[in-house]
Amino acid sequence: MSGKEAVQEVLHGNQRKRGKFLETVELQISLKNYDPQKDKRFSGTVRLKSTPRPKFSVCVLGDQQHCDEAKAVDIPHMDIEALKKLNKNKKLVKKLAKKYDAFLASESLIKQIPRILGPGLNKAGKFPSLLTHTKTCLCITFTWLSTSWCHLLKKNWQNVWALYIKSTMGKPQRLY
């Protein structure tokens, strides 16, 4: 099955079963001759050309520099003083977690967040992602996948057993 046919099948399966939530599409990579106990683990981020959720709201929990940068581009932000005002109040932390879809936290602040806010964000599954002052970001497009991610594997494409594309509730479709 070609890539285009697999995508059409995933989208067609998605239309048959309508859920009351927004489904995502995943690219799953099965590896062979790869032992996660011995071999190094890797992870990365992919920047998409379009936003998967148009009304995705993010809050920056940052130091002064990150708060200034967030303010300049009109992104909601909180500094350490604003976080301390919440004073581990479970209701306020829960309200904060419901208000935003994701959180980004400065390097200097991320270790203090559990102490300041308690377990509220973690329980909601919204523990902040790390926000650094360096501007490096690993960005690849779907078609560029063969040259950028495979160098992390010992034998490049020979370590890839299969590629699957699937929606949250749909059946996986094999691409490779």
From TrEMBL:
**One GO CC annotation:** large ribosomal subunit
Q: Which domain of life is it from?
A: Eukaryota
- Some GO term, biological process aspect, for this entry: which one? translation
Concerning SUPFAM superfamilies, the annotation shows: Ribosomal protein L1 (SSF56808)
Question: Which InterPro entries does this entry report, sorted A to Z?
Answer: eL8/uL1-like (IPR050257), Ribosomal_uL1 (IPR002143), Ribosomal_uL1-like (IPR023674), Ribosomal_uL1/biogenesis (IPR028364), Ribosomal_uL1_3-a/b-sand (IPR016095), Ribosomal_uL1_CS (IPR023673)
Similarity-based family: Belongs to the universal ribosomal protein uL1 family.
Record bears the keyword Ribonucleoprotein: yes
Identify one Pfam family in the record: Ribosomal_L1
Q: How does it assemble?
A: Component of the large ribosomal subunit.
GO terms of molecular function? RNA binding; structural constituent of ribosome
UniProt KW keywords: Ribonucleoprotein, Ribosomal protein
KW Ribonucleoprotein (keyword) present: yes
Q: Under what name is this protein listed?
A: Ribosomal protein
